[in-house]
Every structure is written in structure tokens, then in C-alpha cells.
Amino acid sequence: MFLRSRSIWIALLQLLLIVASAALAWLLRFDFAFPHPGLFLSALPLLALTRLGALARFNLFHGYWRYTGISDAMDIAKAVSAGSLVFLVAERWIVSRWIAGANSIPISFYVIEGILSGVALGGTRMLSRAFMQKVQQQAGQATNKAVVVIGAGAGAALLLQELAHSGYTPYALVDDDPAKKGVKLRGVPVAGGVDDLGQIVRRYHPSELMIAIPSATRTEMRRITESCQGTGLRFRTIPGLADLLDGKVSVGQLREVNPEDLLGRQPVKLNLESVRHRISGRNVMVTGAAGSIGAELCNQLLRYGPSRLVCVDQAETPLFYLQLAHRQSQVETAYCVADITDHSRMRGLIEAHDVRVIFHAAAYKHVPLMEENLEEAVKNNVFGLLGLMEIADASGCEDFLLISSDKAVGPTSFMGCTKRIGELIVAARPASGMRSLCVRFGNVLGSQGSVIPLFQQQIKMNHRITVTHPEITRYFMTIPEAVSLVLEAFSIGGQGDILVLDMGEPVRILDLAKTLIRLSGIPQDQVRIVYTGLRPGEKLFEELFYKFEQRMSTSTERVLRAKSPVTSWTELQDQLKALRAECATSDPVRIRLRVKEIVPQYQWSTSWDDRGIPASAVKEPLVAPVSVALPNAGN
Fold first, then answer.
1. What is the pLDDT of residues 410-429, one digit of tens each?
2. Mind spelling out the 3-state secondary structure of 237-292?
3. Which end of the chain, N or C, is less packed with Cβ atoms under 10 Å?
4. Over 60: is that where the pLDDT of 13 sits?
5. R_g of the chain, CA atoms, integer Å
6. DSSP state of 194
7. Contact (Cβ atoms closer than 8 angstroms) between residue 301 and residue 358
8. By the 8 A CB rule, do 47 and 105 touch?
9. Domains and CATH numbers, the chain
């Protein structure tokens, strides 16, 4: 009933506008005289009917004028044109011919009246929209949250458009371009640059800051977030340019600033279309599928249309959650709880699913823990790999890719040695029907058990961070970036290749800790950094290449091939046989010595106890914890 009465009132208002436009057009046509009133009044009902009929045809009685836009303007133009045409035909060639002695309306009246009707109908709507927006803005300024937007480009314009329909009112923009100062974007002024942020906050008193520079480099983001942190206000950012272009997110999906935004290196974007022809229509297996790298591998592989994806992991619960994450996938999938060292089980899975491609991500990775579990590290990382490759080759598998680590270069840890032996196996194993290769890369941000989640938990629970050494550095990459490298290596690599990503400059862990403290929202003077000393097997600096390895370019930018002399497969088999025998003795010293024969670069410490375990693994930290005040964020 309300909607019907609303439509009636809208129709009456538009009828009044039509009559007023016709009267004004008549006056304009006759120089503000009003001759032939009978002719005008006789034609007016027909004009009103044709105009209202055309408006109804184009659904212009809805009355939601506060949302008037280009589409409504186009509909009004169509309705006025159609109404004028019908009125012209009906009045001039029908009424004038059938009514004896009837005078014809001047042609110019049709044109003037049509223009005036269009302006009246469209202008009323625009005035209504402007009035309602003004009322909403005044009401919003009293109830909405005031914000300052950092950025005055395309990203900021889109964000302001999103904020227009939200509970936020933008008061000012911040941009370092001097030419933009004082300029208004969607009615919001540019009040200054990033260095002026503190002054701008004191002037406008916003409740939140929003960063709208999706193309900002990580160095720029670091500077911006440090300025935001100095205000004490909450700050968020719109998604990165890559996510916006991929259509994964929209501008309005603001998120907290992540550590990977601030690491000072742009993520590598790889062209992975070449992967499709190697994956599409084939049965693919991923071991370690429930881990951070394995799960992302599975997610990305599904985009390339494998015939079947077989996800293998020993951890039941994480594998269950991976299965839930893939429940909407159109690809046939299988989720298998299995230990890769159980050769009978793995042979059965590979043959049952007719696997043709294997991505081997299953491995023990925690450096200090593996220093105390040598036999398990060898069993899983070395002989698990060796057995899996033999089974895969015998079962008709065509491609096998091993995921290695930068800890395999100049290893000081036992885990790193096992990864290096894996590289040697892949490189030395004779060519057969199965192409074997591996990829080497550094740490990944946010992986299970990695430094960032650990630091975040420490900040939240204890208001302190434990750093092993003030100068320790690591290479970092995002999980999607690491997986992109794996797939790129799979696409371009040849038999026995070791492919390495040029990961830029290493990141100091202390700087990463400071970044996380800034992002936590906890005052910096309330969080302590404690130095605990290097852990067993840990070293200050990781490397990506041995000195004797030759760095060769590939067809993909920033992906390199490590070329070095290949160990004789017969010799390596003999060494592995001896290592297997030493593992049977459970003597840690003998196991380490045997591993050093295979990996002469193994820099193991002389401070082992009689069990072959580092003294630091069973005693207090190498360096007593020292509390230090956190330096200024800009240091």
C-alpha cells in the first residue's frame, strides 16, 4: 500500500513537471505571450499521457532519486525522446487531420518542450540526490567514524567511493606529491604529505588511518606504517595491486598491514601459464600436502586442471582441514594418510592413482630438533626420498620434483645436511623415464613453526621477543611466491637440475622483530627483545649457492640454475649404504662422521658431548638472556 501511494505521488510530481515544462515551452515559443490557449489546452492531455506512458515504460516511477546516476539519465533521455515522437505523430498527423479546422502546433514547440521536460525530470532527480547526500553527510559527520586516507591516487578514489556507503567519513587525504596539496578528490582535500601526518591527525582527530596505495613498494610501506604507528591510531591498508588485478579482493576489503608488506623486497611475479600443459589432464601427487608449502602447492595446482590430485600427509587433522578447503573443487581429489618411508603403502598409492607427477614436500625441517633426532632425520629426509624416487620410477611416474632449502648450502645443521644429500641424490641419479629435479629457496613467511607466528605469540603472551643473535639474517619469501617458484622450476627444469630463486637481500631478524612490535599495537617500551644465543645447528648467515657452484640463467627472470660437478651415482650409492649401516648402530658421532663424508662442507661443531649432541642443546643458552630497550622504529 505504501509503495502504491508512493508511486502515485511520484507520478503526480512528474505530471506537474510535464505541465510546467509545456507551459514554459509555449511561452518561450511565442515570446512570453500566450496565444491560442484552446489549442494548448486541447493538446496538453495527449502530451501528459504520452509522457507518463513513456516514463512508466522505462520504470521511472520508482522514486529512489537519491541513487540517481548515468543509467537513470539515459532512461530519461529515452523516455522523453519516445514521448515526443509519439506526441508528434499523434497530435500532428492524427488529431489535426481528423478534427476539422484544427490548428497545428508549431514544430519548434515539440523541440523546446522536449528539452525542458528532460531538464526538469533529470534536474529534479539530481537535486534530490544532492540534498539527500548533504543530509546524510551532516548526519554521518555526527555518527560515523572520522578517517584520514593516505594516498590520493586511483586506489584512494576507489576507496572513497566504497566509504561513501559505509560507516566512515573521510576528512582528509595524505599524499607526498606537492602538486596534489590542496586538491580535492571526491570532495576530500589533500592536507599534506606523510611527514605531516602527525599534524593532520591533531587537526582532524580521526579514529583510524587507511592506507590506499596498492602499488607502494615495501620500503614506502615501511615509512608510511612507521608514521602511522607514531600517531597511536589504528591503521589498515587496501589489498596489494596484484590481488586487485587478479580479482581476489576488492578495494573495500581493508586488512591489517602484514609483515610481508614491509620486508623491503617486492614479491616475484612469475608467469606460470607454461605450467598448464605439464599439469592439465595428469594425475599429480603432493607429499607433505598438509604443510604450509604443500597446502599452497595443492591450491595452486588445482588451477591448472589436473585429472586427479592426490594429497599425502602423515598428519591426519591438517589433512582433514585441507580436504574441507577443497570441497568446492571440480577436480577429482584423494586425501591419503601415509608415511612416505612406508614404501609398501606409497607404492600402493602411486599405482592405485596412476600418479604421473610427484611434488615431494614431505620433510623434517626444524633445525634444533633434528640435532637431537639424527636417525629420524636421515630416515625421512634421505632414505624416504630415495625409496620414493625408486618406487615412482618403477611405477611409471614421469616427473619428480624435490623441494630443498638454503640450509643445504654450507650446512652447519644436520637437517641441512640431509637436504643436501637429497639434492645430490636428485643430481646423481641416472636419467631414466622419470625427469628428476629440485628447487632450493629460503624461509617462507607465516609457515607452520616459522619465526613470524612465534614472535607474534611471544609479543601477545609475554610482551617480549627472543632473538638468537642481533646480527642473524635470513632470506624470506611469501608462501605463494615459494610455490610459484616450485611450479616454475617444474616447468623449465631439466633432469638433475637444482633451481634457485634470486631472493634479493637477506633480512635481519632483529629488524623483523621490530616491525612485528610496531604492528602489534603495544607500546614499544613495553616489549623487550632478549638475545638467547645461536641454537644447535644454527648459523648467522644463510647462503643460496656454494662457492663451487656456477650460477646460470634460465628462461625465467630471477630463477637461476646451480651447476656443479655431479657425484658418481655408484659412489653415492656406496656412501648411502654405509650411512644406512651407521644409522643401525644409533651412534650419533658415527652418523655425523658418515654424513660429513657425503657432505664435506658440513661445518659441525667440536663441542659435542659423548652422545654426539651439542652441549648447548642440553644446557642454558649460549649467551645469557640480555634485555635491551627497543630502539626507535626508524633505526
1. 999 999 999 999 999 999 99
2. ECCCHHHHHHCCCCCCCCEECCHHHCCCCCCCCCCCHHHHHHHCCCEEEEECCCCH
3. N
4. yes
5. 36
6. G
7. no
8. no
9. 2-139 (no CATH), 144-257 (3.40.50.720), 273-626 (3.40.50.720)
